[in-house]
């Protein structure tokens, strides 16, 4: 006893990053969802395939770390189709996107949807790899598709931050089959 104990970080103990938890998007999340969509996409409106969707009115999921909202995923589901309209993470590389996407795929299976699909652009290389890690396949290529989306959302830039032209839309899908190997839930 009597010895002073240092209160700084200990370098001999590995830091375990917090695992994101995911909950359904609720009415109480309206303002924070709008704010996250604005931060991530410059608007609550998402343009794809020449159509404009108000993502702030959609169902979805919120990811949290230590009770702080750190990610948002919005979806449109209609019968057998389950579209991921937007996905964003305030902290990249921390498992937020993975947690959100896993929850969305689980939700689509629960709803007995035939497929999960989404649209991204040709310049979004990191997202393309992310979707492929989830088993999603490129199923459609819309040459100059961003032109149609720019007509309904003119704020879409011509080039991304690294100078790559934003020109084409790519559709990815995950076909869902009955998951008998994981039926215990």
How do you describe this structure in short?
With 185 residues, the protein is of the alpha+beta class.
The CATH superfamily is identified as Gcn5-related N-acetyltransferase (GNAT)
**Which percent range describes the beta-strand content?**
25-35%
Report the mean per-residue pLDDT as an integer.
90
What structural class should be given to the helix and strand makeup? Answer: alpha+beta
Quaternary structure of the protein: single chain
Instruction: Please state the second-level CATH architecture.
Output: 3-Layer(aba) Sandwich
Count of separate DSSP helical elements: 4
CATH topology: Aminopeptidase
Distance between the termini: 51 Å
What does this structure look like?
The chain is of the alpha+beta class and 185 residues long. Helix content is 24%, strand content 32%. It has four helices and nine strands, in the order βαβββββαβαβαβ.
